Amino acid sequence: MNYYLLQHMLKKSCDTYPLKIGIISDGFEFTYDEIFKDAILFSKYLHQNNIKRQDRVLIQSGNSYVTIIAYWAILMCDAVACVIDHAIDVNQLDYVISDLDPTMCIASNISELQHDIYKKYAHKIQKLFFIHQHDFIEFLRKNENLIFEDLYYWVNTEQNLAMIIYTSGSTGNPKGVMLSHRNIIAAVHSISSYLAIAADDRIISFLPMHFDYGFYQMLLSLLNGATFVLEKNLFNSTKALSLIQKYQATIVPCLPTITNILNLCFQCFGGNYDSVLKITNTGETMTAKQVAQLLNIFPNAKIYSMFGLTECKRCSYVPPDQLFKKIQSVGIPIPNIEMWIEDEHQNKCLPNTIGELVISGPTVMLGYWNNSLETQKKIYNGKNGARQLRTGDFMIQDEDGYFYFKGRRDHVIKFKGIKFNPSIYEKIVSEMDEINRCYLFVSTIDSNSNRLFVCLETEFEATLSNQFQLKIRKLFPSSQQPDYVYSINQFPNLSNGKLNKILLQKLAKEYFLKEKDNVH
Hints:
Layout: H1 6-16, E1 21-25, E2 28-31, H2 32-48, E3 56-60, H3 65-76, E4 80-83, H4 90-100, E5 104-107, H5 112-120, E6 127-130, H6 133-142, E7 161-166, E8 176-180, H7 181-195, E9 202-205, H8 212-222, E10 227-230, H9 240-246, E11 251-254, H10 256-269, E12 278-281, H11 288-297, E13 302-309, E14 313-318, E15 332-333, E16 338-342, E17 355-360, E18 367-368, H12 372-378, E19 379-381, E20 387-397, E21 403-408, E22 413-415, E23 418-420, H13 422-430, E24 437-443, E25 451-457, H14 466-473, E26 484-488, H15 501-519
Parallel strand pairs: 1-10, 3-4, 3-5, 5-6, 9-10, 11-12, 12-13, 25-26
Antiparallel strand pairs: 1-2, 7-8, 8-18, 13-14, 14-15, 16-17, 17-20, 19-20, 20-21, 22-23, 24-25
Helix pairs in contact: 1-2, 2-3, 4-5, 10-11
């Protein structure tokens, strides 16, 4: 068989490992044979509800077996899957449904307010399928007689749309990133090759499934014949290490948020986690301190620091043996991806010259759903006809070919009349032993003039002292000194584990406004 569609690759794994446990979720274990049969069953149900080729189907069922089976069933209908945040804000849910115009919506255990949004669109959505996660398996078992053979024939090609992933929308309306079967398969092959994922691996994920980093853990597992352990979001839980030990996980995908939690758990409970052989990190850069913490917890693990965008999945990684030497780097291109730096005239930059990161290769998205204007800003055809993604990320490349992040085009601001790049100083401050994470923003608080806020994530009360704050200020140029330094034990996070910048800004501003009122 020519494995050019995602469901072809799933079938290959299921044919090779029919009796092997492929998924562990919510206390249940599912063999590869069960996974494939359940996907076929549910695809038959979708067919009966007139789901056709390239129809969009929305999934809002969190980290569950429902999400996984619904995804594969949708692909088996030659349709397009869109997994969204289970805890999505109702305004964003309203926007996504309006923008996506789905034929069907699959949801489980949603709030009344979210339910009201779906009812608002009931006249447009062909089918609303609401089910509790624990009832889903019973629903499938009752309909086992629905399997029929011609569902193994699929019309789509590798260039057809397979999935739409909406960005977080933290700076405006979310954008729907369109990914073809070819995009996703190329990403899975590339990541699998440098991580050397094998059938005897057990990947445990605490990441949300609507987050591409979390979703790809399922793809990397199932398309390599490995075991996927899907847990609920555990960004604020002490259970993570015990679950890693219970399931003898070999691969643990992390974010800096998760790393901090794992370190706190280890300090409290200790334990042996020798089964873990690989740790991956993306989303935010790790500090040398966090790398050391992970190696202390997982002494047998190799750590892969990675960088990417939803628009092309992963694009670079730092080989584990180079991690401490290149700790500030986002790495070298992953297999089958080209990366380079361009100046404002689209000329390639010399080493150590700052410019915009451009990416080319089979993982580059088709574009943004229903948004040709934003697509034209990002996607270009190069001189050789290859699609290129202009990322908006400023980087340099050193003589060894390693790339270094220097900020985003839309994050460089003017402060006190001079260009100011918060990313540079966030990295400098984060390297301090007392600091876990740092975030900078400029805003007004008590006048019309802008103020520079430095937000620190730290458990050390000493960071509140005048002496420590003076130490922070010395890291900044004399012409662009911070106005406020705000400390907090843990930064607020979005549901995907990334920093909730809007809420953190609100907390910092409220704190200093309250302090000002107390003085008066």
